[in-house]
Design goal:
- This protein has a domain at 101-411: Alpha-Beta Barrel (TIM Barrel).
- The longest helix has 24 residues, at 15-38.
- It contains 16 helices and 18 strands.
- It has 448 residues and is α/β, with parallel strands linked by helices.
- It is globular, with a radius of gyration of 22 Å.
- Strands 1, 2, 3, 4, 5, 6, 16, 17 and 18 form a nine-stranded mixed β-sheet that branches. Strands 7, 8, 9, 10, 11, 12, 13, 14 and 15 form a nine-stranded parallel β-sheet that branches.
Length: 448
Amino acid sequence: MVTTMRIEHFSRAAKSLLFICLPLFSCFAIAHQHTQETSNSTLEPVRVLYGGYIIDMTADKLPEPKNLVIEGGKIRRILSPESDIPEGAEVIDISGQYVIPGLIDSHVHLDSFKNKPRTVRTQQTEDFLRLNLYGGVTSVRDMGGDLRLVMELKRAAALHEIPSPDIYYSSLVAGPQYFAETPDRVEGMFRAWPQENSPWQTKIEADTDLVQAIAEIKGIGSSGIKMYAGLDRETAARLSAEAKRQGLRVWGHAALMPAKPSELVDAGLEVFSHINLLVWEAADDLSASFLENNKNYSLEFRKSVPDISALLKKMAQAGAIIDATAVIAENINNEKQVIAFLKMAKAHNVKVCSGTDMHGLLNKDWPGLFDEIYFFVEKAGYSPWQALQAATLNGAAATGVDHDRGTIEEGMRADLVVLANNPLESIRNLESVLLTLKSGVVYKRDDL
């Protein structure tokens, strides 16, 4: 027997302790991958999303109606609407509606509520995650913070214990200057941690054992390192090589002071955060610290639009990705520069992904990621399809999960968003979300 459901559109607004625990954390990191594949999604019935227009992120073409057969959290088959429905499947009729891959916010900070009591901090973070999931965001990449709460949330999200995108997080690594110049920020991430370093915030000095430091980072389940500040080209290259050797992604700020963007391409940085930082490629000397360089170089220079074509060509050749965080340009009053750099990146075929740096938080009905996507289209001249690609396929590549998400293909994770209206006709049609599927588990927008 086949059951059918019709979806209609509703509008609504201590280091020793670490060594003891490291094997457990390693088991967690390994088990998490398995858990995401075999948790509640394996208990879900076989489902068929029937007749929806599939928007392909690998090629810019007109969407075609298809049936998506979902089983065990994956897209098992993609069939024509005339094909037979598997016996016993639950059919969700989405005829005339549109399907895109689950969206990915490539730059969040889930520890953003750190100055509040734990119960409040946890609840507000879960509220943020819930808003994102019901708005079509199925994965987020955390780019630095106190990971003790984030690790707990990652597990709960993977098990579908809370409505949340899947969480991938980074551990911050930086030079001594960063720790000396920003003691309040450093202390905010350590909170009651008894050691000078932690696996989520590590000072990199000349005598640092990088093998051990990266192993500790990997041991808490981090997907990558985030090179933050105060690192030269040689140190960045050594960090990058060791992180990759141990199977971690290499992420970081687009300029590290003293390392320039082009030097970071040479060092092996894979994803460059904050497109506005590319301006530092034109600086004569970055040997001073980040704070000192912001004093040494005028505001006029920091908001300028130098010719960075050579840098962008180099990035394109290396396959680097820019994590633009364009939407925060309004906050730092350099929108003109960010728009120009986005257009230049597009002209040089540099991949760009969409990250918010937690823009929006809880003061909106829709994820802040929508504003980032709208910025690409309405201000930087990207087509709706290009902006969606930045938030899906490119986001998956940046996070290191493009082997099983970011596109709608057989064998990929069933991370999907069903929209009432076509986002290729108007990118604002993102605000017509009906359903989000994460690993095949269905979340109805009007249950938010």
